[in-house]
Design brief:
110 residues; alpha+beta; four-stranded mixed β-sheet; 37% helix; flat
Length: 110
C-alpha cells in the first residue's frame, strides 16, 4: 500500500514530480506585496494549475476563509506564496523570480 501517495502520483508523470512549490518570505504580508509587484512575467492568480507559470497568495485567496490559527496550522502564513511552474523557458521564470526577490531585498533594506 502506498501510504505517501508518491508512487501513485508518479505513475502518470514521466519526468518527475509536478511543478508546485510554496515558500515563505521574511517580512510577512508587506514583503509578499512587494515581491508580487516585482514580477513581470508570472501571473498572479487565485487558483493554480495553468499551463503558464502562475503565483498565488493563499492568505488572500484559497485559504482566506480560514481563521488565522487554522491557516497557520496548515502551514499557510501571511508570508506564504505558492507557485505553479508552467511550460515557459526555465530561464524566463528564474529571471522573473530573481528580479522580484532583488526588489524585495532592496525594499527591506530601505
Amino acid at each position: 500500500r502506498d501510504v505517501t501517495g508518491v508512487q501513485t502520483c508518479a505513475l502518470p508523470i514521466s519526468r518527475g514530480t509536478g511543478g508546485m512549490i510554496a515558500f515563505d518570505l521574511r517580512g510577512g504580508a508587506d514583503a509578499v506585496a512587494t515581491f508580487l509587484r516585482g514580477l513581470e512575467t508570472i501571473a498572479i492568480v487565485h487558483s493554480l494549475g495553468e499551463v503558464v507559470t502562475t503565483i498565488s497568495y493563499p492568505a488572500l485567496s484559497s485559504h482566506r476563509m480560514l481563521p488565522d490559527q487554522e491557516r497557520r496550522a496548515l502551514g499557510v502564513g501571511d508570508d506564504t506564496v505558492r507557485i505553479s511552474v508552467g511550460i515557459e523557458d526555465a530561464g524566463d521564470i528564474t529571471r522573473d523570480l530573481a528580479r522580484a526577490l532583488a526588489g524585495l531585498r532592496a525594499a527591506l533594506r530601505a
